[in-house]
Amino acid sequence: MLTSIKMQGFRKYDELSIENIGRINFILGNNNVGKTSVLEGIYAWACGQNISPFINIPLARCRYSGIQNPYWMMEEVMAVVNHRGEIPFHMSFAGTFSGEIVQFNHTIFPSDLLTEYDSSYKKTADSIIPKSNDQMAKDTSIVIPSSMGMVQFSQQPTVIAKWEVERNGEVVSDNITIPSVIVSKVKPFRLAKFIDVLSHTAVNETVQMYSSLKREKLLDDVSAEISKIFPEIVGFDVLPYPDGSQAPISILKKDGSFLPMYAYGDGIQRWFYILGAIALYKNSIICIDEIDSGFHPNAQSEFCMHLSKYARENNVQLFLTTHNIEFIDHYLNSMSRLGQDFSVDARVITLRDVDKKTKTRTLSVKDAVKLREEYRMELR
Fold it and tell me: Could you give the number of structural domains in the chain?
């Protein structure tokens, strides 16, 4: 399990360290204090030397494959690094895992496109590697559907940067290009999943999750947990349309009728997605942004209990952001219902900007409960 994390030169952080991490970690703080960046940094550490998922999530926030403008992508690269004054750019992620410090050092060599994006870099152009986009680019075949069938074109991609990740002297590198052509060369250090407030709306991924849960014989378990809060729900199924085409997930109701899951509110959809992800991504790290989004206060305590039990049963470590102190209270209450054995799993981590630096405070469940119940202290 990851027990500490240190990130340097990443987004707003010159340096940020968090110690005493638990199995379930709530990250609190004001807007723009960097809560989502902490999730991204943890996800980046888990990616290790597998550059592809890093580029898709922390860098471009799931936009990479859709970005066609090279200046836009260069802007994304500039936004992910803290120190932009020296080329190449550097950032690092070090985590304590199973008692060992595991560090990944990223070095980014922007292409000559940088001087077009920002002319102030022209004075340091000799330091920019590659000096010529032509030297770095490779021919890329792109297959495009048309009325005549599949047509293949050869296109010279625009190189945005050369990206290197080093660990213990071993370096893995890739070119970041538009259009995207990254092929993962290595496995991530740890299996990881990043869930934002819109992940559950990705129909194809949700259907894929449903299929995987069914193959793993986990679908009934997830359905049973959800039916405890939504008793009208009996289960989930995928009913192909009359022409055999793919349909979204449907919910089977007690009266025997079916309704598409997307006819229901975000609460049910997100509940299925999150519990499904925890059941599916065993032995992993899962980062969830705005965990409270979509959940009515009446359902939050029960959801928190399921969250804790599923995380332990599937050996999943969770990192969760929220602005909602009511949700934290519901979680603390659920821990008291589950007992001391589960309480040791959780931490409440607060971020706060002080004197232009981000300070962190980590509380155990016991300490957080005391501060809330005895002093009504604001944990955020």
Answer: 2
